[in-house]
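Pinned message: reference record for Xanthine dehydrogenase family protein subunit M
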Amino acid sequence: MHPFSYTRVSDTREALKAGRAGGRYIAGGTTLVDLMRETVERPEALVDISGLPLREVTVTERGGLRIGALVRMAEAAAHPKVRTLYPVISQALELSASAQLRNMATIGGNIMQRTRCTYFRDVTAACNKREPGSGCAAREGFNRMHAILGTSDACVATHPSDVAVAFAALEATVHLLGAEGVRTLPFADFLLRPGTTPNREQALRKGELITAVEIPALPRPLKSGYLKVRDRQSYEFALTSAAVALHVRRGVIQEAKVAAGGVGTVPWKLPAVERHLVGERPSESLWTSAAAKAADGARPLQHNGFKVELLKRTVARQLRIVGGTK
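Predicted structure (tokens):
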């Protein structure tokens, strides 16, 4: 590990000042410390923000949900309002990592975590995300776990977060605080596809701090859930996953929110699937025909072509679980 300075701040003013000076924010540290140990990340200064007052879960005036950036994953998963209003979030969190990590990792840190691509974490391998212009070893290497959607010639790494898939499906908003004041970003705009600059992963300005993630109020009744398909039953990243939320009234789907994980360079929203569902009555044939659109635009690599069919089956299965059949 390379030498670094460490500062613990007690308010957002101190945090922003240290962030503007080049400090890297750290709370649970479950990702950044690992990357520092592997010398993938070499920050000169760490700013511990774990003492900031960003640990509340509140229901908004319109009936949505606001989760503070420093709420622990385990706390968010167990919170009664999260479990009642948006089970998809609780389920995504509970299917993430180990219990020990969920007790430490924060919501803000989770959506900021970096890819688990083995080439990114191997400092001897070519990786445009780690070292711009060096190439992408994964494209011609062993790429079974890599992305089939949102890829570019520069990068094919997947985004590892489970709860980010739920946030993408629910069309959440990220609240930010920086030198220019408060601003909000749609979750879809917060995480960036690699394009030609895979080293730029979030639409953050220098020194900006995530303060909360807000889920909008959605029509009720709303049924939701998260399904994760992986090589082993626990403590493993997704091969494919699906976050689904459905509002069904009088036997007709009025609103559908669907996103996939494990297959995209960012959590992958599935608007074609959503459009296919709205206005229809739940049925086995509907789930199958809607899910058939889940892999539209996929660009599989040598070792991950199986994800195309697996994604369709994952989405169909979760639609069936959430929406039922008649």
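Pinned by admin. Summary line: The CA atoms of residues 92 and 163 lie 5 Å apart.
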